[in-house]
TrEMBL record:
One of its GO terms (molecular function) is DNA binding. It comes from the Bacteria. Transmembrane segments: none annotated. The lineage of its organism: Bacteria, Pseudomonadati, Pseudomonadota, Alphaproteobacteria, Hyphomicrobiales. The modification 4-aspartylphosphate is found at D53. This is DNA-binding response regulator, NarL/FixJ family, contains REC and HTH domains. Residues 142-207 form the HTH luxR-type domain. It comes from Methylobacterium gossipiicola. Residues 3-120 form the Response regulatory domain. The keyword DNA repair does not apply. Coiled coil: none annotated. PROSITE patterns: HTH_LUXR_1, HTH_LUXR_2, RESPONSE_REGULATORY. GO terms for biological process: phosphorelay signal transduction system; regulation of DNA-templated transcription.
Length: 213
């Protein structure tokens, strides 16, 4: 593999990625700092591997849409999702969208390099603890298909499970309070629950599907 595309909006992380990949013998490292730029670069250059951050400045899980777009354009592309989220719902969604591997942002550089090399070789990568939580989530059953949730709804569900109020969620995602209320109404409808308490119970049950990190 001679080229890799990194899509992330943090300059320090981009520099760190570039150093690791150059040390690994990657000849060309392309960079994009937003989803639109990442899509344009991928469509034009078709690198063999893409490293995608899931969350950008807007707070939404925009990286999921890019993963789906890349997978549609080129089914054999190796995609490593890179995120701060260890929620098994979000991990599952990234893998369902087409990511070959998933690694957390707080891992040591050596662990990221392991994830990178594994995905680069064409194999899937998921940390054992995360893999266990995702597996337990699947075995526990789901109140409704998670595939029906939008990226924004999925993130709001995760934040509800972490105990955040409507106002705190609005601040975290940089959206209006009314937007959060509307999204929670949509979540209740899709997940088949009637009250906020029931919705929070669903969110917590998914967030606790495995051992805490």
């Amino acid at each position: 593999m001679t080229s890799v595309l990194i899509v992330d909006d943090h300059p320090v992380i981009l520099r760190g990625f570039r150093r690791i990949m150059e040390d690994a013998g990657v000849e060309t490292v392309h960079e994009a700092t937003d989803i639109a730029g990442g899509y344009r670069l991928f469509n034009r250059l078709r690198p063999g591997m893409v490293v995608v951050d899931l969350t950008f400045r807007t707070g939404a899980l925009a990286g999921l849409s890019l993963i789906r777009q890349i997978r549609t354009l080129a089914r054999d592309t190796r995609i490593l999702a890179f995120s701060m989220h260890d929620d098994p719902i979000i991990v599952s969604r990234a893998l369902e969208s087409g990511a070959t591997g998933y690694v957390l942002k707080d891992v040591p550089a050596a662990r990221f390099q392991e994830a990178f090399e594994t995905v680069r070789s064409g194999r899937s990568y998921l940390d054992h603890a995360l893999a266990t939580r995702v597996a337990v989530l699947g075995l526990a059953g789901q109140p409704a298909p998670l595939a029906d949730l939008t990226a924004r709804e999925l993130q709001i569900l995760s934040l509800l499970g972490r105990g955040q109020s409507y106002g705190a969620i609005a601040d975290t995602l940089a959206v209006s309070y009314r937007t959060v209320i509307a999204a929670c109404a949509s979540l209740r409808r899709k997940l088949g629950v009637r009250t906020l308490a029931e919705l929070i119970h669903v969110a917590v049950s998914h967030g606790e599907a495995g051992p805490a990190r």
